[in-house]
């Protein structure tokens, strides 16, 4: 059994040596990789650091300008809103005045049309009715004169040969 114990001890020692050598190789590989990563990090830091510094300087320079621009834009918006409110008030006032003037003009026009209509009615009453009465009177006189002429013509004809009396009465009736 002793043999086997020595054999397993030797095999275990060899396995242990293999593990130690693998771990040592891993250690050295990780150390070398870490050195490369550190070198890349330092190189990247050396390249990026000036850009970050420039960006910071640029931001420091432009920050007051940007703040001023934002403040100016805010002021312009405030002024524009104020002017828009003034224009709105002005347009509202003008439209109210125009509406009032239109109502006033409508009243004047309505009153004028009513006055013209009343004048037309008055003219018909005062001028046309007397004209109609005068026309009727003249028509009556004309009919009377025509009747007298017709009688005198008949009397002259009746002396020579006359019309029947019924026809004469019919003409008088018409």
Describe the SSE topology:
Elements: H1 2-160, H2 165-173
- The beta-strand count equals 0
The overall pLDDT average reads 86
User: Portion of residues in helices?
Assistant: over 70%
The major beta sheet can be summarized as: none
- Envelope shape: rod-shaped
Q: In percent, how much strand structure appears in the residues?
A: under 5%
Computed structural class: mainly alpha
Termini separation: 178 Å
Q: Count the DSSP helices.
A: 2
Give a quick summary of the entry.
This protein has 174 residues and is mainly α. The protein is 97% helix and 0% strand.
What does it look like?
The chain has helices at 2-160, 165-173. The N and C termini lie far apart (178 Å). It has one domain (2-173). The longest helix is centred in the middle third of the chain and has 159 residues, at 2-160. The chain is 97% helix and 0% strand. It is mostly helical.
């Amino acid at each position: 059994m002793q043999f086997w114990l020595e054999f397993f001890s030797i095999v275990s020692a060899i396995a242990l040596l293999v593990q130690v050598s693998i771990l040592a190789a891993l250690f050295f590989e990780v150390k070398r990789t870490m050195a490369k990563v550190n070198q890349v990090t330092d190189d990247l830091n050396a390249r990026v650091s000036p850009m970050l510094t420039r960006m910071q300087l640029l931001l420091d320079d432009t920050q007051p300008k940007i703040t001023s621009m934002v403040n100016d834009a805010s002021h312009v918006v405030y002024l524009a809103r104020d002017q828009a409110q003034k224009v709105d008030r002005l347009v509202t006032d003008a439209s109210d005045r125009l509406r009032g003037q239109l109502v006033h003009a409508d009243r004047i026009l309505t009153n004028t049309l009513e006055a013209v209509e009343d004048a037309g009615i008055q003219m018909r009453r005062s001028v046309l009715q007397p004209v109609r009465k005068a026309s009727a009177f003249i028509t009556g006189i004309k009919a009377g004169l025509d009747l007298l002429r017709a009688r005198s013509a008949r009397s002259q004809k009746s002396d020579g040969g006359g019309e029947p009396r019924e026809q004469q009465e019919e003409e008088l009736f018409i």
